[in-house]
Amino acid sequence: MSQSTGMPGEMNRRQLLRRIGLTALAAGPGAGLLSACATAGSGGADARTPATPAATAATSAANPLGVDPKKPLEVVIFNGGNGDGYATGLHQPLYRKAYPQAEIKHVPTQKIGTQLRPRFVSGDVPDVVNNSGPEALDMAALAAEGHLADLTALFDAPSIDDPGKKVRDTLVGGVQENSLIDGVPHVLNYTVAHRALWYNAKLFAAKGWTVPKTWDAFLALGEEAKKAGITLFAYPGQVGPFYQVWNLVYTAAKIGGNQVIVDIDNLADGAWTNPAVLASVTAWADLQARYGDKAYFGLDHTQTQIKHLQDKVAFYPCGSWLENEMAKDKPDSFEYAIAPVPSVTATDKLPAEAIMVGVSEAFFASAKGPNPAGGLEYLRIMLSREGARGYTERTKNLTVVNGVAEGLDLPPAVRSAAKAQDAAGRNTITDARFESWYKELFDHSQTQTNAVMAGRVTPEQFCANMQKKADEIKKDSSVSKQTRSA
Amino acid sequence: MFTRLRAFGFVAGFLVVPAVLYLAFVINPYVQAFQIALTDWRGVSRAPGFVGLENFARLWDDQAFWQALRNHGVLLVTLPLVTIALALFFAYLLNLGGGGASGTMRGVRWSGFYRVVFFLPQVLAVAVVGVLFKAVYRPDESGVVNGALIKLGLEPVGWLTEPGLALWSIIAVMVWQAVGFYVVLFSAGMAAIPRDVFEAAALDGAGRVRMFLSITLPLLWDTVQVGWVYLGIAAFDGFALVQVLSVDRGGPDGATTVLPLEIWKTAFSYSKFGYASAMGVALFFMTITFAALTLRVTRRERIEF
Amino acid sequence: MTLTTEPPLTTSSAAAPPASGRPRPGLLTGLSHVALVVWALLVVLPLLWTLLASFKDNTEIFGDALQLPAELRWDNWARAWSKANVGTYLLNTVIVVAAGTFGTMLLGSMAAYVLARYRFPGNRLIYYLFVSGMAFPVFLALVPLFFVVDQVGLLNTHTGLVLVYIAYSLPFTIFFLASFFKTLPTSVAEAAMIDGASHVRTFFQVMLPMARPGLVSITIFNVLGQWNQYLLPLVLLSGAKDKWVITQGIADISTIAGYEADWPGLFAALSMSIIPVVVVYAVFQRQIQSGLTSGALK
Fold this sequence. Notes:
B: 305 residues; mainly alpha; MetI-like fold; 12 helices; 70% helix
């Protein structure tokens, strides 16, 4: 389960297809091999992170970040859906290979906040953190305290596989845009995920059902499914109503364009009372009332996903990590496939094919840790071909590194997502960043989503309640504000 | 003079270690927490900004805070009432329910067995109880209760998803866990009541209900009040159960939220440690007030016999 | 109303004189039994269900709740044992709780005794300072507490955790024992003092044995409370997984179950943590119950 989110605005079809090796037409990495060896600037510390390389070793071509090879490194990994094997079995051995004298301390945890918060106050901070899960640290607060290393040096450093290329040129589009906090790159989102509705392709084939493109077809399928004893759509209401929050805002973006989400993230006046939001919420609440099952309001995500695998639910809103999460329980009769949310109106701004594509899994290096250069180097190793490809191999998640997943045996879900992105073309839905920017607003949206889907508030009240909370946050001086342009 | 000195030395000697430990590990962090309540600390900085009483002023129009308070109100009334009523009932049956109206007061058969079983939930960790009742309350046919309901041809019930029902479902778990303890507590109290009191009453023709109301309850009143204080303090908590069991952490629509959970969310999800500490200080004064009030009210003459 | 440790009234029929001529109210007795049986089932069934679920596979757990597992899948237990490290964590918990409870009882009874029976300036102040600790939500103190423990160099040690357990158990222990010591007759202590016993000797050799019922009952409270502690070890032992206690293990596997959908493993781990407690309780239940009641009643 991935919670942090981001979005590569310009990640296009070709980049993605190239990465997962579905097309031979996409240009290979040859171009890079031929290029002249432009030595990338080693990127010194900037004013915001004075603690960075003061005491580090000299830089060289092999060691562009100036890592002290003897300094130990501490890495904290969120031990969730992806486990921590990719760190202990892959990234850390790679680091050790480069710096055999360095000792690596590996800390897996599910309680990032509880464990690390006191350490950040005391100054005894780990060098690399995979800031994920329900207790992720507040990045804006960390940035304000100068704890986050500036990633400019990393992005400008030469790629491990191709010294002629800067790291930033090996990554998909949205990474840098999503790395910014108050205008400075601080966060590395490592994976790419696709979010829409998931269904069992084999079930649909057996039943002769087609994936609906319009809302009327969606409802008609609901009728069919009902006859077959299948719930058309379910989201987990107990833990994880945010899957449906995503669904509501992405649908709203489909109706009214990505600006709807941008306005929501910017806490713009009337962002939630936008007619597109109302139309989206109205459509989903109506669908839930007609073809939903209230039992799912009380189930968590894994419980709901197992019911989905048992063909008790036709469509489930989630991201492309879903198959990896459920791999152990997936029967052979089930094949994950992604379906865009059907068009709600005939005049939707985005076409029926549009799906959400975004980056997630936040990593950061500590500016005030004992080994800041080593932290950046660790991230650079993660972004190497071997590091990224191995990650995809182990976790079945695509990384933000271009062209490293060719020939890998990827699960149907990821292949299906790639195809869907192909169909969407440039019409991808942007991510909603209020999730990580304004957690309080996001929590409120989850409560309100459960309320409106269960019929306890009307869609109009939903919009009004959300707007009220957004206005409160806007006025709350203790919450630091972020903005986005697109 | 010498004895007094010796006594003081003894007092100081006995108090110094516990006091030092307590000051270092309890009072010191709490004082810091009180200080944090006056700041805008976000959990990671070393020098939080001082905001005075702003955090406390903010409590006034915090809906979640008041909703949590309402829920504590409900808990404060129902949890002790239901638990004590059930426990008295069972204790009475176990101790005196088996006797005839002839005045031979004794417990029902297997009362020892029941006492053991009833107490069992008390020894389970709350985290364990939470996970367990998640399975019991599951809203579909895989839930222990709803599975049985469906078997009987009834509609499954959204125990934790209906706003009108959810808090009661959680209170039921608290009662489930607590009853056994008070059964044992009251049993002992009843055992201490001289048998001949009952026998005399029985000879006068008093039924079991009358005996309970006019003999058992008054003589047990002191113990009942002790129970009331324990359960009252428990009613100000409820954190672990609500966090594990409830929908959407304290939902639906905040119907089951409690102050410790709101504090937890405010601090660890929203990184507003200053504001969360202010909530904690409010909770502190409420619990203290309750305990002081109850202890004052319950400090009454004991019935001696 | 001082109560002796006499065990609660039981069904020993020998004690019951022969029934007189009036008929037994059979209906009422029957109803009593029904009520007791129903409650006993309410207690036992969920526990039994957990035990059964530990042998099921995911499909069965997500199927009919009342169905039995098709086979005894011990591998659920093996997986939970290795993943949740139940053995190590149980042992750690026993060590920490034993040391913590002993320390709490020793220091708590000393402080309570002094506060209950000696007049000196500041007595009430110290008493209320201790007792007010009962009312404060623990997790608010977590972050400052972390630094305190860190400063004295006891982070990620069982010693640090034990000291913190003792400190946090003192308020209730002192509250409870102080009122208990007050109810003890003063004559015995006075007699001992006249015989020339020191304050310390009087306390350990006269007063403590007299307070035994109260000590037993508060010991049980402390064992249960420290056994259940989750937040404190989470913060204070976070960096040393081999030192974890059982609640951390359960929470760990419960979170992992959420990510890997290993529900049978979770129920196996739950069963493993329940069974030893139930066994210990079953063995000592008589002592626990008599101690509990006689103490709590003062």
